[in-house]
Amino acid sequence: MGLMRKPLIIFYALSIYVLSEIIWWAYLLVSVEPERKGMIIGEGAIFLLIFLTGAYYLQKTLRKEKKLQEQQKNFLLSVTHELKSPLASIKLYIQTILKRDLDKAQIHSFLNNSLKDIERLDDLVENMLIATRIENHSYSFPKEEFNFSELVKKVASRLQIHSCSSQTIITELQPDVVLTGDKFALSLVVSNLVENAVKYSPPCAEIKVKLEDKNNTVLFSVEDKGMGISEAEKLRIFDKFYRVGSEETRKTKGTGLGLYIVKQVLEKHKAYIKVKNNKPTGTIFEVTFNSNGN
Questions:
Q1: Quick check: 190 and 151 in contact, CB under 8 A?
Q2: Going by CATH, does the domain composed of 74-135 fall within 1.10.287.130?
Q3: How many whole angstroms separate alpha carbon 206 and alpha carbon 90?
Q4: What is the DSSP letter of 103?
Q5: What angle do CA 18, 24, 30 make, to 5 degrees?
Q6: Is 271 exposed, middle or buried (0-12, 13-18, 19+ CB in 10 A)?
Q7: Whole-angstrom Cα distance, residue 262 to residue 4?
């Protein structure tokens, strides 16, 4: 933030100086040639208008750059927190296995939970890689026919919060729904939407993941009972690095890449997503696309 404040101060100082010089020279010219007063004022007004327009757009660019720097700073902090949590969890599980005399079932449970945390780390890395490749237009979105029902089932099972004793993610999946598309990219769509619902929901709250095929139209939805999203923020949540709430009050983790990736991937599959309010509280993300992926 300090890096951007200095250029803004210099910009405002130069603007004030230039405006003062314009007014002073206009005054001198009118004093020397009062008969050309109208022409001098007219030309001065045009020059002033051009200068103010340029100054406005320059200021807008500087403020945009400042905002981008803040977003990138928050992104780096978020990535750090996102990495530390599963790493700390994996470390604790392994330390417990090494230090205690556990039975085979406990060891299997701890290793299974560690694997889930490793997959979370893998998701984070894949999100950053695909976001960069999408922005650079270097990702080709290879298409294949695959069982979307099995993909959703696998992702939902993996993202089930292992620290909660009750079943959090409830799946209502029509079996053998087939899509033609980029299996890897669409798996990120599912994981980002489900994980987003988990992050913004109270502990052990019910999250519904639904999938059905109606007349060659696939409907995939994720319903949570979290704090909900305001109408104003619904227009911005798919922007890169954007996260709901302010940085000062936000308690949830995240990088701001998940929903950006969701939107970009769905656009490449000619699908669309709706954001609706859940009742009595929460949000529903509803994805619609043709079962053939076109």
A1: yes
A2: yes
A3: 26
A4: -
A5: 135
A6: buried
A7: 32
Report the run of H or E that residue 284 belongs to, with start and end.
Answer: strand 283-290
* Pairwise CA distance, residues 218 & 174, whole Å: 10
CB 233 within 8 A of CB 195: no
The structure tokens listed for 135 are: 């922005």
Token pair 């404040």 in the structure block, residue: 5
For the chain, give every domain's residue range.
2-69, 74-135, 144-290
Which superfamily, per CATH, for 144-290? Histidine kinase-like ATPase, C-terminal domain (3.30.565.10)
CB atoms inside a 10 Å sphere around CB 153: 17
Residue pLDDT, tens place only, 6-60? 666 776 777 787 778 777 877 777 777 777 777 767 777 787 788 778 777 777 7
Other C-beta atoms closer than 10 Å to the C-beta of 214 total 10
Structure tokens of 214? 């109606």
As a three-state string, the secondary structure of 168-222 is: CEEEEECCCCEEEECHHHHHHHHHHHHHHHHHCCCCCCCEEEEEEEECCEEEEEE
Which residue bears the tokens 């053939």? 292
Candidates 140, 105, 294, 157; CA nearest to 217 is 294
Q: Which residues contact 97 (CB under 8 A, 6 or more apart)?
A: 107, 110, 111
Dump pLDDT digits (tens) for 85-144: 888 989 999 999 999 888 889 999 899 888 888 888 888 888 888 888 888 888 889 999
**Cα–Cα dist 227/203, whole Å:** 13
